[in-house]
Amino acid sequence: MTNTTRRRVLVSATTIVATVGAAAVSVPFIKSWLPSEKAKVAGAPIKFDLSKLEPGRQVTLEWRSQPIFVLRRTPDILQRLNQEPHLQLLRDPNSEVETQQPVYAKNAVRSIREEYFIVIGICTHLGCIPTFRPDVAPDDLGPEWIGGYFCPCHASRYDLAGRVFKGVPAPTNLVVPPYRYLSDSLIEIGVDQAKT
Using CA atoms, how far apart are residues 106 and 190, in angstroms rounded to an integer? Predict the structure, then answer.
């Protein structure tokens, strides 16, 4: 009878020690599946004060390790974007590809407020970063150029609404990230306007 009792005590003690040991080993293992603090910060929304941006100027921010172009368009830029000869040069002037922008940016200027344009600065061809070329009709881009983004890798072209030109390697418009206005001059990139 004492051997049976002793065996039960030893089995119970061994089971308890094994359970505690397994829990102690599994906690760090399970925590390793969770994103690090650095990863959480890298994917976190970012804020930008638009009042710092002069008309006709652009700033480049970083969100999720991607360049984000924030452009303050002038009335002249907006007028050029809607001219009929220019629209004929674009592959998707009406932003029909739904994955290229949130619903609230599916319009002629691809933004919530026409003055400010926010876009991920990565060419939709092979992922190069297009250069900001706001000049009109420069010698190297031709007389039809009204200002936009030029990809130096394979010569893809986009206008200042991120709409891709016909006949270039890039298949679709530049992607507009989710964003919202927190005030008249403060935006938050990474949070969808429709979810506020």
Answer: 17
SS3 content of the chain, % helix, strand, coil (to 5): 30, 20, 50
Token pair in block for residue 59: 């700033």
Q: Which helix (H) or strand (E) covers residue 180, if one does? A: strand 179-181
Which among 128, 90, 129 has a CA at the least distance from the CA of 110?
Answer: 90
Query: Which domain range does residue 7 map to?
Result: 2-34
Contact between 41 and 120 (Cβ < 8 Å)? no
Q: Look at residue 168 in the predicted model and tell me its pLDDT.
A: 96
Residues 78 and 8 in one domain: no
Token duo for residue 6:
């002793």
Q: Among candidates 166, 179, 20, 160, which has minimal Cα distance to 81?
A: 160
The enclosing H or E element of 2 equals helix 2-31
pLDDT in tens, 16-32: 877 777 777 766 656 65
pTM over 0.85: no
